[in-house]
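Consider the tokenized backbone below.
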């Protein structure tokens, strides 16, 4: 590990729970180059063929239920309560970090040493904890979770909608066939969500979210 590692790069460090990737000194492999080229080609196709048709988050939620049979999970359930708590903290860090006072600044990773990495994650955890302690009366989100279950109780699909900041996320558990089905549904939901001509013209965050998802 130490031989192949040159740096730890933080991706999305401003938005709560942070993904950390270990990057090596080596140049991208042929496979990585091909994957990158394939994504770029798909993105060009998506941008060229994407129609300017958009729908609200309320319409997206109705689309999930009516077209694909998703059911909204009880907002009072422990499952939703925990995911709401995590997402609220994440969004607060991303959109209103000034509410964190002295913890507003993004933690900085000094080096890839075990001590500095451990200290970094401790700072991240403290920041998330601090964000969770900010009351909903000060900062809140409009979170909804939809679930689709199957005969095998271990198979399921989840799609999360946050209406205030226009967020769509999700995941699935099951065999490869179910996972492919989920990815088709997920992309179709994003396509239905769509973009306006203004989004296309300004390359808005909504435009980038839709194009990136459809290009994966």
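A designed sequence for it:
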């Amino acid at each position: 590990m130490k031989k192949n590692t040159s740096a730890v790069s933080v991706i999305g460090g401003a938005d709560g729970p942070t993904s950390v990737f270990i990057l090596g000194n080596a140049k991208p492999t042929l496979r990585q180059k091909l994957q990158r080229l394939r994504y770029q080609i798909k993105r060009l196709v998506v941008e060229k063929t994407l129609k300017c048709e958009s729908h609200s988050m309320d319409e997206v939620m109705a689309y999930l239920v009516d077209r694909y049979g998703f059911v909204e999970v009880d907002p009072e359930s422990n499952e939703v309560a925990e995911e709401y708590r995590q997402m609220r903290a994440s969004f607060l860090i991303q959109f209103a970090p000034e509410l964190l006072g002295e913890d507003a600044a993004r933690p900085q990773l000094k080096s890839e040493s075990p001590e500095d990495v451990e200290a970094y994650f401790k700072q991240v955890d403290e920041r998330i904890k601090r964000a969770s302690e900010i009351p909903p009366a000060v900062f809140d989100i409009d979170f909804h979770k939809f679930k689709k279950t199957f005969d095998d109780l271990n198979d399921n699909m989840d799609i999360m909608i946050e209406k205030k900041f226009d967020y769509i996320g999700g995941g699935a558990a099951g065999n490869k066939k179910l996972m492919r089905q989920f990815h088709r549904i997920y992309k179709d939901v994003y396509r239905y969500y769509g973009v306006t001509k203004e989004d296309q013209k300004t390359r808005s965050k909504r435009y980038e979210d839709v194009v990136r998802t459809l290009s994966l």
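The first strand starts at residue 5 and ends at 11.
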